[in-house]
Amino acid sequence: MLTRLNSLLSALCLFLILVSCNKNKVENKQLLRAETLISSSPDSSYQILQSISPDPLSKSEQMYYGLLLAEATDKKYLSLLACDSLLNEAIHYYDSGLNRAKALMYKGRLQSQMNMYTEAMENYFAALKELGEADKKELRIKGMLYEDLGNLYSNQVLTEKSTEAFRQAEDCFMRCDCKEGLASVANGIGWNYLLQGDTRLALEHMKRGLGFALEKNDSAIAAMIYHNLSCSYEDMDSILFYGKRSLAFSKRLASKAAIVVGYAFLNQEHLDSAEYYFRQALCDTLMETKALALYGLKDVMDVGGEPQQALKYSEAYSGVMDSIYFHKRSSETEQKAYEHEAEMKVYKDKMKMEKQRLSFIILSLFVIVFAVWYVQRVKRRKKIMQLEHERDVASLKADIAESQYHIASLRMEQEQDKERISQRESEIRRLADEKAELCNIIFKKTPIYRKVEQLSRQEKTTKKQNLRILLEDEQKQLRLSIMNIYKDYIAYLRQTYPKYTEDDCIFLCLSLCGWDDFTIALCFGNVNKQIIVQRRHRMKQKSDIQ
Fold this sequence. Notes:
The protein is mostly helical. The chain has a domain at 446-544. It has helices at 2-23, 29-37, 42-51, 59-75, 84-93, 98-113, 117-128, 136-155, 159-175, 179-195, 199-215, 219-232, 236-249, 254-267, 271-281, 287-303, 307-381, 383-444, 447-456, 472-485, 487-496, 502-512, 517-523, 530-545. The radius of gyration is 36 Å and the shape is flat. The two termini are 56 Å apart.
């Protein structure tokens, strides 16, 4: 019997190993070639993937095809919406590891494009859980995830959290020696500093990132950094220099850079040059860029004294803005449709899981029935041994019952001890409260108490500069009186809550007197009771930690 069981377990383990290996098996030559080209030539890789029909591929190759197509689409700065169903299948197919992390990352990027920031963040953090700290490929994806989180936070103007995420991405990229990633995150950190008004640090990080980009000859990142540098300077020469460099490096950012250069020439009243660059930006396919270019041409005509032409460009600008508005409305409709499809997908997955759970329960019941039948059969064949076994079991059960009775008795004694301890603690607290009340009576007879009582009767609506507070000497006198009168209560607080400061203990003593937050704030030399609310919140955090 044991021999059969061992053979069955060995066969099951071998089957699971074969299935696990098969999930990552890719043999298609076109897929392998597309994977080889995806870093150096994403356009060629994308064309190869577009020429492949996924239907003849094996399941593992279909899933990997979806990941490669999403990566190539992302590198070409195209919408990932066409890869949505492939990414969903990949997420369900890969149980863990690098490929699952990639699928979750590109799913998060798609959701970011659809302004579903909460869902995108959940997928980014889920992907981070799949990655380790040693493998360079995993570190690169981990850095990309932290960079995506940094961009997401930056879009929400959470610059501090964004910079923190970029720092984590920088650490990952340094450990895997990914210069492209270092260039991109350095640019992101620099842009955050620029948003915070620190131009020096912004330029320092952007130029550092530019060095990495030029070292790897990455024209896209270099163009983006040159464009951001042109937005970081105030002098026209620097704006023109970096704007023109951005124009030379990338066609994708050429129109945005042309607008920056155009306005630089417009500020210098070089109208012909400004008009040339605005007309260059007018060729862009993005409606937002066209709108900026038309508005720039309107400004050129206004400065050049051509009101008719200025009016013409102004009307064209209004028409493009109307188109942007309607396009935005259609994008919102598309987003709602996507959300609905996502909800339906979740519902279908839930139903599928319910069916799988029901199948598992039925299979489990079948296994249990089979096991019972097999046990009964064995019992019939080994009746004598079973009788001895039952006797031993009966004896063992008796021992267990005796042990359980003993354990129950010990638990009852423990509960009684806890109850006695609780009663004693309640008594101690009652005595402490009575002692505190006696201390209150003594404290109320002091001159400083009467001074505080007098201050508490001030009109709270009075202007803050007219409110009277305890002076420094009076505060010292109040502190000394409380430390002497409530010394036992303060000792109890310090013993129970070691993280409480002396001001925290004095605050609690003042609270025993029944004064409101405004009066207690006056005792600490403040006229804003919000200070007391903040102190109470910090004390609660300290007590929760302890």
